[in-house]
Amino acid sequence: MLDPSTVRSLVWIDYRLALLFTVFIPLTLLIWSWVEKSEAISLLLTIYWRVASLLAITVYLMIGGWPFSFITAFLSKLLIPLSLWFWADLNEEIREQPKKSINLGFNAWRWAVSIYCAVGAIAQLLFVSCAFSSAAFSSGTCQIWLEPSLLFKSYIHGGLTNGFLGFWGLMGLAIYATYLGYFLLVRLGRQGRSALNQ
Fold first, then answer.
1. Could you report the per-residue pLDDT of 185-195, keeping only the tens digit for each?
2. Which of 60, 80, 124, 184 is 20 to 30 Å from 144 at the Cα level?
3. Please, are residues 57 and 169 in contact by the beta-carbon 8 Å criterion?
4. Domain of 110, in residue numbers
């Protein structure tokens, strides 16, 4: 097993990269796509934000101390790249657009975040056992993963309890699961890989 100090360093690197690749860059690209009136990129980024909200939900589940937050962390790393490459019509439209800086920036980020998520998902597999055993979850190695979420809580929600925030994480997960289930069972069969025919 990895040394706790090594795990702590890797966890904090992961959270910093997550902020960069899954929050700041896509937010900048979304605003840029509005300014450039690039509808295909705007739509794909809107879909991205819906899917990536599972990362925010995971933060609140970790604040609440829910072991299955390790599963949602892993799933988010799988769903994000899928959401960015799944839509055949948007991919084609982006490919056919005139070569502009927004296209180059978006495609560079799309590849970078896909690689980040793939590496992150593989790393997350090493810790998925934290979700299935209370003894493992209570171990120092698993608890290290909660530290960035708890620091976020102390900065943003200092006066609120972990249980209260964890409850809102559960509510967010219930809504997310309902929407994902509806998409998989109803909309996917109706629209296939077309995001424009909704």
1. 998 888 888 88
2. 80
3. yes
4. 4-191
